[in-house]
Design brief:
41% of the residues lie in helices and 26% in strands. It has helices at residues 17-30, 64-72, 74-84, 103-115; strands at 3-11, 36-40, 55-61, 87-95. A four-stranded antiparallel β-sheet has the order 2-3-1-4. α1 (17-30) runs antiparallel to α3. The longest helix has 14 residues, at 17-30. It starts with a strand and ends with a helix. This is DUF1330 domain-containing protein. Residues 3-97 form the DUF1330 domain. It comes from Streptomyces cinereoruber. InterPro entries: Dimeric_a/b-barrel, DUF1330.
Length: 116
Amino acid sequence: MTAYALGNLHPKPVLDEEVFTYMERIQSTLDPYGGRFLVHGAPTREVPEGTWPGALVIIAFPTYENARAWYTSTPYQALIPLRTRHMKGDVLLIDGVPEGYDPATTAAALRAATAG
């Protein structure tokens, strides 16, 4: 099942050379784990609900295990400080939903569980 690394990053107004180096090197850390960018900090076009005070990054992996192995890998761990010294943010690893996922089935299970 596809898994994702999500980042809500808050870059400083002026980016440092280290951030550019991070961006140049990250793909080589993703390749061994099948990671690929789906979204990479593109400007937010619209926020129809709430607020979004950051730059969104979404990276897809074939499995959660691949995502976790990438994040904890020595090459990626070495890159992290190049980013974190210049931008704050939140990063999470999360499973996607399986093929054919039906939210109504989830709602029925939750309804049954809360009915007692």
